Amino acid sequence: MKNMLDHRYKWLILAVIALVLLVAASSTVVALNERARAASCPEPPPPLDWGERPAANIRLRATTGHILTPDGNRIFMWGFADEGGAFQHPSPTLTVQEGDAVTVHLSNELPEPVSIVFPGQTGVLANGKPVQPQLDEQGNLISLVDAAPPGGEITYTFVAAKPGTYLYESGTQPAKQVQMGLFGALIVRPAIGANYAYNDVRTIFHPQREYLLLLHELDPAIHEAVEQGREPDMTAFWPRYWTINGRCFPDTEAPAGASWLPSQPYQATVITEPYDETTNPLPAMIRLINAGVHTHSFHTDGFYLRLIGQNGRPLTDSVCDWHPLRVQKLPARDLSRAEFTVTLGAGQTYDGLFIWTDANGLEPGTNPPPAQMASVAGATGSGSAASGYQGTLPVNVVMTNECGEYYFPWHTHSERELVNGDGEMGGMMTMLRVNPPGGCP
After folding, report:
1. Are 164 and 312 in contact (CB under 8 A)?
2. Structure pTM?
3. Across 308-312, 365-369, 399-403, 421-425, which has the greatest mean pLDDT?
4. I want to staple 164 with a disulfide (CB 3.0 to 4.6 A). Which of 144, 221, 264, 312 is the partner?
5. What are the residues whose beta carbons fall under 8 Å from the beta carbon of 126, sequence distance 6 or more?
6. DSSP 8-state class, residue 346
7. 178 alpha-carbon distance from chain centroid
C-alpha cells in the first residue's frame, strides 16, 4: 500500500512541476508576443483634443417640399436641407474625413420637434452634453436623442472616428419622420486617401467611379395626411413607391440636377468601362444604404459586387490580429465576399467594389456574335452585340445608346417594388452602363 501511495505522490509532484513549467513557458510566449507586437504593430497615438482636430462644420434645416414620380404624382415631403439651399430629397450627402471634429447645427422649421441620430458614431453630444432619450409626461419615449423644438435649434458634435458608409436620420418619431424624408447619407473617408473605402490598400477604387444608391419606400397616404395637418396611422403603412436616391425608375436614369426633377438632384445610373489590367485596373465603388423599414434584396445584373464593408466596418481582419500561442503576426484574412444579390435590412449599409469584364470579347469579323439581332419593331440596341461597335440596325429598330455601350438593369428582386403607384413598371430600379474602352466620344 505504501509503495502505491508513493507512486501516486510521484506522479502528482511531476504533474505540478509540469504545470509550473507550462505556466512559465506561456508567460514567456506572451512576453515575446507583446514585444513582437509592439515592434510591428505599435499602439496608435493618443487621440487629439477637439480643438486640435480638423473641423467639419455642417449647417442643416428641417423643412418641407415636394417630389415628383414618373406616373405624374406629386408627394409632400420633409427633409434636411443645407442652411442656404432649397429642399431636396434625399437630404444632402455629408462627406467628412476620418478624425474630423464634426459639428452639425440643425434649425427646425417643422411644426413638431426634430432630431438627428448618427448610427455608427460614438460619443455624440447634443448642445455639449451626451445625447439622452426624450420622454413625455407619461414616460413614453418620444425621441431617441435630444431634439430641436419647432422654430428652435440644436447642435450635435462627434468625432468621425471610423471610415465607412453611414446613414443619418431623424431620431424623433422615426417611423413617421424618416418615412417623410428626414434622412441622408454620411460618408467618412479614411486617412489613407479619398479613393480608398477603408484604411486598407485592398479597398482602392477608381476616384471618378464612386456611386451611392440610397433605397427607400413611400406610402403616399401618410404624406397626404401630414400635408393636411392630420396625424397619420402608421399601423396602416403600405408603400406604393420605391426609390433609389429619391427617384423611381425611369427617373433614376435622368442626369444629376435634371431641370424636370428640381427637388431630386441625385442620379442613380452606375457607369463603368471594361476591366483592363493596364488601362482600367481599378474597380468602381458602390455604396448601398437602406433608409426604409422594409428589407430589400438588390440585384446587380452583369457582374457581382465584391462586398468589402458592412455598417461602416471593413470585412477584413485587422493586420495586427494575433494568435495567443504564436510569436509571429498572423496575416490579415480577407472576409469580403462576392454577391449578385445584396439583402439590406432596415438601416443597413454595404460597401462594394465592382468590375465588369468583357468575358465574351465579341468583335465583328474576328469574333462575331453567335446569333443575328432580331428584326423586331421597337427593339433597342447598338446594332452590334460587341462592346464599342455600332452595326447596321434592322428596319424599325430604335437605337437608344450612343457609342455601342452595354446596359444591365440593377433592381430589387421583389416584383411588388418594380411599379410606380398602382400601374406602370418602375420603382426600385436603375441601370448599369458599361461604356466601351476609353469612354464615349
Report:
1. yes
2. 0.84
3. 308-312
4. 312
5. 115, 132, 145, 146, 154, 155, 156
6. T
7. 17
